[in-house]
Design brief:
Order of helices and strands: EEHEHEHEEHHEHHEEEEHEEEEH
Structural class: alpha+beta
Bound molecules: N-oxalylglycine, manganese (II) ion
Number of helices: 9
Number of domains: 1
Number of strands: 15
Distance between the termini: 51 Å
CATH superfamily: Clavaminate synthase-like
CATH architecture: 4-Layer Sandwich
Strand order of the largest sheet: 1-2-3-13-5-15-4
CATH topology: Double-stranded beta-helix
Strand content: 15-25%
Length: 298
């Protein structure tokens, strides 16, 4: 039987079946997956038993893998280095993290609506998150469709947003979640970067909002006004009608398009229950301003 694609909603999120991601992927199957991905932006692959190598191999089919972790590994030891972001609540020794651990304080920022790596000059195209062990209660991941959110804006607002450039900075989101302890190495590696506010997706020609809790200022606007507009857009873009809440099952892989979705993790009892997940992050082809043909300073 061939690969199946079952939409979760008519235009956002779909479940892909009859495929074993452990095996080398036929070109035709990859085409089906890519077509579904551009259409639905979130794809769910249930009942996969992936090793880290297999997770990585499948991810590499979508582009170059981000190889550097955001936090300084010396200040924040992690179970993984390089290609894998640890999305668990486990410390480097495999035990549940401590209440005041640096990892825990930093990752609390994942509970704010965001899109991965928009704070990097070369942001992310997509992320692929694999769940080994899930939390018994909570620990869901919510996704918001930024194409639908853009589409729903009044024409006058669309006109106002066109061409605006936003400053994304990891410090903006972490200030909001209460983490301020970036060290010198991290501050140097993670300067504020420009991203366009409305982007066009090359595969479909559809437009999407591109905003996140990493966004802090809008170029050419007073700080307060920019901040207010970002907050207004975040509130608009995360209304229920744009949101799919993913309730995890063990051994499931979910991939999402970071160019046109936001996501956030929901609470769980992270000091008592293990939630073991790892993410591979794929880079986009260029900075979002460059892709829109907007020149920005180096
Ligand atoms: C991520 C992320 C939220 C969650 O993996 O990028 O933000 O549900 N995850 O843990
Ligand atoms: Mn994330």
């Amino acid at each position: 039987m061939s690969i199946t694609v079952y939409p979760v909603t008519p235009h956002f999120a779909a479940e892909v079946g009859n495929i074993d991601l452990c095996k080398p992927l036929a070109g035709a199957d990859l085409d089906v997956i890519k077509d579904a991905f551009w259409k639905y932006a979130v794809l769910i692959f249930p009942e996969q038993r992936l090793t880290q190598e297999q997770h990585l191999e499948f991810s590499e089919r979508f582009g170059p893998v981000e190889k550097e972790r955001t936090l300084d590994p010396k200040a924040t030891p992690s179970r993984f280095s390089g290609e894998f972001a640890d999305i668990s609540n486990l410390a480097a020794d495999g035990k549940i993290w401590g209440e005041t651990s640096r990892q825990r304080l930093y990752k609390a920022g994942n509970k704010l609506w965001h899109t991965d790596s928009s704070f990097k000059r070369l942001p992310s195209l997509c992320s692929l998150l694999y769940a080994r062990t899930i939390a018994p209660i909570g620990g869901h991941t919510e996704f918001a469709d930024q194409r639908a959110a853009y589409h729903a804006l009044p024409d006058a607002t669309k006109a106002k947003l066109q061409g605006l450039v936003v400053e994304h900075w990891i410090v903006h989101s972490r200030r909001r979640s209460g983490f301020t302890e970036f060290n010198e190495d991290e501050m140097k590696r993670l300067p504020p970067v420009p991203q366009v506010l409305v982007r066009t997706l090359p595969q479909t020609g559809r437009k999407s909002l591109y905003v996140a809790s990493h966004a802090g200022r809008i170029f050419g606007m007073p700080d307060d006004a920019g901040r207010a507009l970002i907050d207004e857009l975040l509130a608009h873009a995360t209304q229920r009608q744009f949101v799919y809440t993913h309730r995890w099952r063990p051994n499931e892989l979910v991939m999402w398009d970071n160019r046109c979705t936001m996501h956030r993790g929901t609470d769980y009892d992270d000091l008592r229950s293990v939630r073991d997940m790892a993410r591979v992050t794929i880079s986009d082809i260029a900075n979002s301003c460059e892709q829109e043909g907007i020149a920005v300073a180096a």
